[in-house]
Known about the structure:
Oligomer: single chain
Largest sheet: 7 strands, antiparallel
Mean pLDDT: 83
Structural class: mainly beta
Strand content: over 45%
Number of helices: 0
Number of domains: 1
Order of helices and strands: EEEEEEEEEEEEEEEEEEEEEEEEEEE
Helix content: under 10%
Distance between the termini: 34 Å
Amino acid sequence: MLSIVHFTSAGRLARFALVGSALALAVGCGSSGGPGGLDQEPSGSSSQKLLAGSTAFGFAFVRGGVVLGARSYNEHVVNAGQPTARSVYGTNTVMHTGVGTYTVTMSGLGSLGGGNAQVVAEGSNANRCRLLNWLPSGADESIAVQCNAPSGAAADTDFDVMFYVANGTWAGSQFTDAAYAYFSPSGTMPVGGYNYNSSTAGATPNTVVGIGTGVYDVTLPKVHYQNASVQVSTYGGSGAPYCKIDHWRASGADTIVTVRCFDTAGTPATSATNVGFSLSYATSGPTLGEQGGHGWVSGGGMPLSYAGVTGPYQGCSGSITMNPSGNGITVSGLSVWGAPYSSPTMAQVGFTTAYGGDSTYCKLSSLVTSSISVTANVQCYSPAGVVMPSAFTVMTTSNQPSGPC
């Protein structure tokens, strides 16, 4: 059942009104071994700009074929960043339609069309999950997920899933703070509502070009920030195909993200594999306004120039550390705002993607949450499901907004 809340203080903590660019917090100046070399924090960044338009955001953790209410959230913001901003809250449900197959419905989030979905398996096994599709179903958003064992056999699996859509631009922004797109198994990157960046509202679309078997370069226009949350989810295919991030780098005024896709056995995916991917980029988590954090972990270290946190106050709260074992991150110093600005309880999810030129893949082994922190533990595997070290990107997001200092 939907409920409507009218924000009475639109200039302060109205959700999605401010870009959560807390990257300056505990962030270094460069990393010669990082995803894009030197971190590039441009002058005139779009920090503290208002988003004009509408947006929708939802996430859920599905455990044992049921949405766990404590880790589920659903919100459609109308006239984001404006005095008339208002939020419509909905619910998330799941249908277990077959072995390893699920349909997640996020009520009220399908009205804007398009958008981006991400999914990752969670748990102690080596199973992996992918997107089969995501599309409006009336006013709702329907997301189909398939999970498999490394052998390719369908397998019931716990997973985190997220959906985000925006149709506006950041007022006065010269740079892209958020972008998303998907590469279809048919070999195309659709434009329109499935292809977005926050500086142009998709008017200058993201593009993709194949540069080798199963390897793709995705160009994100006006992306100057190399320190960002970059996630990739596998889309389509059969068996247990998977995709990962090779690296991302600056290219003039743009950023290029290189993605690698593999078939079930870990062989670079050919066109016959019929596999695509969904890509999400954002300087502070997918929604640019929610508390959470992101990091790039490689070789047992997490360069601070590729880590960021959005706390309850943008740029002056929250902290992020790498877990002692090097298998994930802990984001601390979070807070619940409560009515009228947010839900009275904290809900969080996490996502991870393997990084590098090899054939490893990664998943969340667990997500440990509280009202003030979250720990995302990551485990990586060979194509056959054998535990193996790998670099990875990891991020967390929540239902709690971040306000100005």
